[in-house]
C-alpha cells in the first residue's frame, strides 16, 4: 500500500516536472502555454492561475483520502465497532462554502476575460475572411486596397503587431479555427452564422493552426499556418500579390503552365493573372512560397519533392482528399511542379 | 428377448432448450440483471478492443495501421459502445440486481416491461453495431454533429445505423427508467420512507428522472436527422436555411444529463461500499442524497459548456460557465462526505473498497479538477477538442468503470453465492489503476502540448510521441486488468468461496436474504425501521450488538404471487428493432440499402411489434 502510494506520488511529480519543462519549450508549437499574442496570453494567464489552484485542491483532497485509508485501516474485531457517526452539520457547511469560495475565485476572472476577449482592442483591424473547406483552408483579404481582394490558401500572412479580425465561415460542414499561440478556438459554421475572432502576433514567425472540429475523413490533416511578418514585409507581399507576374515564357515552367490548363487543373484551381480561374480547390497563386503542401501534410521543399508526391497521387498522401490522382507521367509531373514552384 | 434399457419413474432432466427458454422468457429482475451484465461485459470487451485499436494507431506518428475512414468508425463506435452499451448497460445491470432487493421488494413494478427493456437494449445494440457488416459503421463521432450527418457528406449507411440504433436503445432506456421510477416510489418495504432509502436506490431514482427527461430532446434531434436523410427535409441544411447548431443544442441538452446518468449510479455504489468497509454509517446521508439530486438538476442547465467555441456570445458563455462551475460544489460535498465516512472507521481494505476509494474517488478528483478548468471559457477556447478533454472525461468514466468493478466484487456473491478471489481482485485493481493513470495521465500532458482529438494520424516533431506511446502501454494494462477480472469471475463460479447471505457484514436489506436469493427474494417482506435496517437488526440502532441477524424464513412459497414467464416482451422488442432496421434499409441500393423495399421491412417490424404487444396485453397474469 505504502509502496503504491509512493509510486503514484513519484509519477505525479515526474509528470508535472516533465510537463513544466516541456510546455515552455519552443519545440512544442501547438502548446498554448506559450503565448505569441495578446489573445492567447489572456487565456494562458487564466489557465495557469486555475491550474495552480487545481493542483492545490488535488494534492489536498488526495492527501486526505490516502491519509484516511492508511490511518484508519484496522482488522474487523467481532463485537467492536468504530463510533457510529452519522454526520456533522458544521463540517457540512464548511465544505460547502470552501468549494463555493474556490469557484467564485475562478468565476470572476473568467467572466472578465470572456468579455475582454469579446472586445476588439483596436478600432481598425486587418480584416480577413477564413473559409473552411473539407479539408483545407481558404483565406481572403477583402478590400485590402479599395476594390481589390487577395485570396490564398492554408497559409495566412499577417503583419506583426496589428490586430487581425477574422470572420470565419464554412463552405461545407462545421470546422474549427485554432492557432494556439495566437488565438483560441472558434467554430467555423456553414450558413448564416459568421463568427469573428481577433488576435495579433508579437513577433515574426510561423504559428501552427489546426482544424479542431471533427469534419469527416481527413479531419486530421486540415492544418494551416499563420505567418507573421514585419509590417513592411507584409506590405511588400500584398503589393506582389496585387500585381501577379506574367506566366513563365519558356522552359519546363512554361510547359507546366500549359499542362495546367490542358490537364484540367484549372477546372478547380485559380492562378491570379492567368486564365485559370477554378473555384473548387485552393488558390495556387503563391504556392511556391508556402511552407507546406496539402494543408500541412507535406513539406514544400525547394526541390519540389513534396509537390511531386502530392500531385502524383494525393490519395496516397491524404486518403479521401477531394483532389484525384490524374495519372500523369513523370515528365508531366516535373513540368507541373516546376510551374508551381515558380509561383511566388 | 432383448430388452431395451429404459429409465422408468424418473423425471426427465430439463434439457438445454428448456433452460434457454427459461432465460428467453424470464421476467425475474435478478435474471434480467444477469442478462444485462453478460451483454454489457461482452460490449466492454468490444469497446475495449476498439480502444486498443485506436491506441495502436496512435502509438507512433504517421501510422498506417488503420485507414482514416476505419479509424473514424472505430473512435465513433468506441464512444457509442462505452456510453450507451457499457455504462448504461452496467447501470441497468445494477439497477436490476440490487434495487428490488434493497427495497425489500419481490420484483420491479412491471416485470414484463423490464424484460422488454432488456431485449430492446440487446437488439438496439446489435442494430447499432450492424453497420460493421456493410463496412459502414457510424463514423460521425458519438456526438454526430450536423451537417456532417447529412446524406451529402455521409452518404453511407453508417449515420442511419447511428440514428436507428440509438432510437431503439432510447425506447429501452425510457421504459426501464419509468419502471424503476415506479418501483422505487411504490414498492419500498413497509416503513422504508424516502429518507430510509439506500443511497444507490436514491441515485437510481434521480437517474430515472434524468433519463425520462433527457432522452426526448435527443429523440427529437434523431428524428430530424432521419427526416433530413430519408425524406429531404432541411432541419440542418444551411443551404436551405437550416441551422446545424440546432443539433448541438438538442444533442447536449441530452448529452450533459447523460454524463450524470452515467456517474450518479457509480456514486451510489461508492456510497454503499464505503460504509460497509469502514464499518460505520454513511457520513451526512441527507447531504449525499441532496447533492446527488442537485447534480442531476444542474445537469439540465449546463449543456452549452460543450459549445463555448460555437460563438454563442459572451453573455451566454458566462452564464453557462457559472452554472457549470456550480457543479463543483455538490460534487465536492459528496467527496468530503465520503472522506468523512472513511474517517475514524475500521477500514477493511478489501477489493470492493480498493475499487470504490482508490479506483473511484482518487482519479475522480482529477476528473473534477480538470472539469473545473473547462468552464474557464478562455482556457476552454484553447483546450476544447484536445486530448486534455479526452483525459478529463476518461478521468470521470474510468472511475465509473472502477465503481462498477467495486459493485461486482461487492454484490456478485449475492447472485452467484460465491465470493470473488481477493488476490486476483487486487491484481485486477492495480493493473487497472496503474493502466488508467498511465493512459490518461499521459493524455493530460499531450493535451497541454496541443494534440487535437479525433485525428487518425499526427506528424512527428510536435513533442507528442513519448506521451502517446505511454498512453498506449497504459491502455494494454487496462485491457489485461479486464482479462484478470473475467478470469476471476469464472474462477469464482467454479470454485469460489461460498459467500453465505451476508459476507461483508452488510447494512442494507439485500444481505438479509440468502445468496443467491430465492426467486421471490424475501419469504416475508421485511418491515423497515432504520436507514441501515440490517445493520440495526444486527447491532441495534446505536451500534450496541443485539444479536445475530435472522435468515429469511423459507415457507409459504406457494402463496407468493409472481408473474408468469413471457416471450411477448422479446417479440415486441424484436419487432421494433426490425422496424428500425427497415428504416435504415430504405436508403438507396447504391449505398447498400434496399430502396423502397426497405418499407416492407418496416411494415414487417411494425406487424411483429403489434403482434407482440397484443399477445402481451391479453396474456393472463397467472
3D structure, described in words:
- The complex is a heterodimer of chains A (344) and B (622).
- Chain A is built from eight helices and twelve strands.
- By secondary structure, chain A is of the alpha+beta class.
- Chain A has two domains: 26-243, Cupredoxins -  blue copper proteins (Immunoglobulin-like); 251-341, Cupredoxins -  blue copper proteins (Immunoglobulin-like), CATH 2.60.40.420.
- In chain A, the strands form four sheets. In chain A, strands 3-2-1-5-8 form a five-stranded mixed beta sheet. In chain A, strands 4-10-9 form a three-stranded mixed beta sheet, with helices on one face.
- Chain B contains 18 helices and no strands.
- In chain B, helix 2 runs antiparallel to helix 3 and helix 6 (199-231) packs parallel to helix 8.
- Chain B is an all-alpha fold and 622 residues long.
- Chain B has helices at 16-24, 29-58, 68-103, 111-129, 158-186, 199-231, 244-278, 285-298, 314-326, 328-342, 351-373, 377-383, 387-416, 422-448, 465-495, 533-539, 568-585, 597-618.
- The chains are: A alpha+beta (344), B mainly alpha (622).
- At the A-B interface, helix 1, helix 2, helix 3 and strand 7 of A face helix 3, helix 7, helix 8, helix 9 and helix 10 of B.
Distance from N terminus to C terminus of chain B (CA atoms, Å) equals 49 Å
**What is the alpha-carbon Rg of chain A in Å?**
27 Å
Cα radius of gyration of chain B in angstroms: 25 Å
Strand element count of chain B: 0
Count of spatially separate domains of chain A: 2
Sheet with the most strands: spatial strand order of chain A: 3-2-1-5-8
Class by SSE composition of chain B: mainly alpha
Beta-strand percentage range of chain B: under 5%
From the spread of the alpha carbons, the general shape of chain A counts as: elongated
Q: Unreliable segments of chain A (pLDDT under 50, ≥5 consecutive)?
A: none
Amino acid at each position: 500500500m505504502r509502496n503504491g502510494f509512493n509510486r503514484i506520488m513519484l509519477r505525479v511529480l515526474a509528470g508535472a516536472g516533465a510537463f513544466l519543462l516541456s510546455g515552455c519549450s519552443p519545440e512544442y508549437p501547438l502548446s498554448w502555454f506559450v503565448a505569441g499574442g495578446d489573445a492567447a496570453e489572456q487565456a494562458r494567464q487564466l489557465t495557469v492561475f486555475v491550474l495552480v489552484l487545481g493542483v492545490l485542491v488535488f494534492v489536498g483532497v488526495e492527501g486526505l483520502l490516502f491519509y484516511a485509508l492508511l490511518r484508519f485501516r484496522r482488522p474487523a474485531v467481532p463485537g467492536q465497532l468504530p463510533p457510529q457517526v452519522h454526520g456533522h452539520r458544521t463540517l457540512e457547511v464548511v465544505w460547502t462554502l470552501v468549494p463555493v469560495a474556490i469557484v467564485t475565485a475562478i468565476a470572476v476572472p473568467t467572466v472578465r476575460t470572456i468579455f475582454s476577449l469579446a472586445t476588439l482592442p483596436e478600432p481598425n483591424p486587418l480584416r480577413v475572411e477564413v473559409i473552411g473547406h473539407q479539408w483545407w483552408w481558404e483565406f481572403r483579404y477583402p478590400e485590402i486596397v479599395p476594390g481589390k481582394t487577395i485570396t490564398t490558401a492554408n497559409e495566412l500572412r499577417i503583419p506583426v503587431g496589428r490586430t487581425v479580425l477574422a470572420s470565419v465561415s464554412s463552405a461545407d460542414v462545421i470546422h474549427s479555427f485554432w492557432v494556439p499561440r495566437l488565438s483560441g478556438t472558434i467554430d467555423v459554421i456553414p450558413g448564416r452564422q459568421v463568427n469573428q475572432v481577433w488576435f495579433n502576433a508579437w513577433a515574426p514567425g510561423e504559428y501552427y493552426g489546426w482544424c479542431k472540429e471533427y469534419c469527416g475523413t481527413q479531419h486530421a490533416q486540415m492544418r494551416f499556418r499563420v505567418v507573421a511578418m514585419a509590417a513592411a514585409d507584409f506590405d511588400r507581399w500584398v503589393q506582389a500579390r496585387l500585381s501577379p507576374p506574367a506566366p513563365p515564357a519558356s522552359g519546363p515552367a512554361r510547359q507546366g503552365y500549359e499542362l495546367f490548363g490542358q490537364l484540367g487543373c484549372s477546372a478547380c484551381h485559380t492562378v491570379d493573372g492567368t486564365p485559370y480561374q477554378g473555384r473548387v480547390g485552393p488558390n495556387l497563386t503563391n504556392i511556391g512560397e508556402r511552407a507546406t503542401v496539402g494543408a500541412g501534410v507535406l513539406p514544400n521543399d525547394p526541390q519540389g519533392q513534396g509537390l511531386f508526391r502530392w500531385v502524383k497521387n494525393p490519395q496516397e498522401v491524404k486518403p479521401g482528399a477531394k483532389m484525384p490522382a490524374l495519372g500523369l507521367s513523370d515528365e508531366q509531373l516535373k513540368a507541373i511542379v516546376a510551374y508551381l514552384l515558380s509561383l511566388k | 428377448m432383448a430388452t431395451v434399457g429404459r429409465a422408468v419413474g424418473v423425471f426427465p432432466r430439463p434439457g438445454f432448450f428448456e433452460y434457454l427458454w427459461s432465460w428467453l422468457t424470464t421476467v425475474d429482475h435478478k435474471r434480467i440483471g444477469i442478462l444485462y451484465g453478460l451483454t454489457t461485459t461482452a460490449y466492454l470487451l468490444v469497446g475495449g478492443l476498439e480502444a486498443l485499436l485506436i491506441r495502436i494507431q496512435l502509438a507512433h506518428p504517421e501510422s498506417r495501421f488503420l485507414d482514416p475512414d476505419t479509424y473514424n468508425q472505430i473512435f465513433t463506435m468506441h464512444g457509442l459502445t462505452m456510453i450507451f452499451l457499457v455504462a448504461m448497460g452496467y447501470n441497468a445491470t445494477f439497477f436490476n440486481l440490487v434495487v428490488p432487493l434493497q427495497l425489500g421488494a419481490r420484483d420491479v413494478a412491471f416485470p414484463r416491461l423490464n424484460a422488454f427493456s432488456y431485449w430492446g437494449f440487446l437488439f438496439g445494440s446489435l442494430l447499432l453495431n450492424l453497420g460493421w457488416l456493410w463496412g459502414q459503421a457510424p463514423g460521425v463521432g458519438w456526438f454526430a454533429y450536423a451537417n456532417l450527418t447529412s446524406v451529402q457528406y455521409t452518404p453511407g449507411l453508417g449515420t442511419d445505423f447511428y440514428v436507428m440504433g440509438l432510437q431503439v436503445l432510447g425506447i429501452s432506456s425510457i421504459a426501464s427508467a419509468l419502471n424503476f421510477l415506479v418501483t422505487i416510489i411504490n414498492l419500498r418495504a413497509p416503513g422504508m420512507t424516502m429518507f430510509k432509502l439506500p443511497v444507490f436506490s436514491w441515485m437510481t431514482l434521480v437517474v430515472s428522472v434524468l433519463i425520462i427527461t433527457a432522452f426526448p430532446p435527443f429523440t427529437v434531434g434523431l428524428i430530424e436527422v432521419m427526416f433530413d436523410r430519408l425524406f429531404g427535409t432541411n432541419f440542418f441544411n444551411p443551404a436551405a436555411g437550416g441551422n446545424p447548431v440546432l443539433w448541438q443544442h438538442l444533442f447536449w441538452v441530452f448529452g450533459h444529463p447523460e454524463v450524470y446518468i452515467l456517474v450518479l449510479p457509480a456514486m451510489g455504489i461508492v456510497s454503499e461500499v464505503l460504509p460497509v468497509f469502514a464499518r460505520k454509517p454513511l457520513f451526512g446521508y441527507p447531504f449525499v442524497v441532496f447533492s446527488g439530486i442537485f447534480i442531476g438538476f444542474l445537469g439540465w442547465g449546463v449543456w452549452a459548456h460543450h459549445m463555448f467555441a460555437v460563438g454563442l456570445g459572451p453573455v451566454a458563455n458566462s452564464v453557462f460557465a457559472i452554472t457549470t462551475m456550480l457543479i463543483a460544489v455538490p460534487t465536492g460535498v459528496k467527496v468530503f462526505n465520503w472522506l468523512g465516512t472513511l474517517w475514524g472507521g475500521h477500514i477493511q481494505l478489501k477489493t470492493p473498497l480498493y475499487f470504490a476509494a482508490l479506483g473511484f474517488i482518487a482519479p475522480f478528483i482529477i476528473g473534477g479538477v480538470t472539469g473545473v478548468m473547462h468552464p474557464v471559457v478562455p482556457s476552454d477556447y484553447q483546450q476544447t477538442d484536445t486530448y486534455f478533454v479526452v483525459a478529463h472525461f476518461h478521468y470521470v468514466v474510468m472511475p465509473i468503470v472502477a465503481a462498477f468493478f467495486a459493485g461486482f466484487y461487492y454484490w456478485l456473491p449475492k447472485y452467484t453465492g460465491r465470493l470473488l478471489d481477493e488476490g486476483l481482485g487486487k491484481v485486477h485493481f492495480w493493473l487497472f489503476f496503474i493502466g488508467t493513470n498511465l493512459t490518461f495521465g499521459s493524455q493530460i500532458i499531450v493535451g497541454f502540448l496541443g494534440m487535437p482529438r479525433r485525428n487518425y494520424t499526427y506528424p512527428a516533431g510536435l513533442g507528442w510521441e513519448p506521451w502517446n506511446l505511454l498512453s498506449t502501454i497504459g491502455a494494454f494494462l487496462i485491457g489485461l486488468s479486464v482479462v484478470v477480472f473475467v478470469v476471476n469471475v469464472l474462477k469464482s463460479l467454479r470454485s469460489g468461496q461460498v459467500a453465505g447471505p451476508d459476507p461483508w457484514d452488510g447494512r442494507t436489506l439485500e444481505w438479509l436474504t440468502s445468496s443467491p436469493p430465492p426467486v421471490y427474494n424475501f419469504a416475508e417482506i421485511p418491515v423497515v425501521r432504520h436507514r441501515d435496517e440490517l445493520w440495526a437488526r444486527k447491532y441495534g440502532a446505536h451500534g450496541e450488538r443485539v444479536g445475530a441477524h435472522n435468515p429469511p424464513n423459507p415457507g409459504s412459497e406457494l402463496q407468493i404471487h409472481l408473474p408468469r414467464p413471457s416471450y411477448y416482451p422479446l417479440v415486441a422488442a424484436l419487432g421494433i428493432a426490425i422496424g428500425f432496421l427497415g428504416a435504415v434499409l430504405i436508403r438507396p441500393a447504391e449505398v447498400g440499402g434496399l430502396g423502397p423495399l426497405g418499407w416492407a421491412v418496416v411494415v414487417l417490424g411494425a406487424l411483429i411489434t403489434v403482434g407482440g404487444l397484443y399477445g402481451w396485453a391479453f396474456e393472463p397474469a397467472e
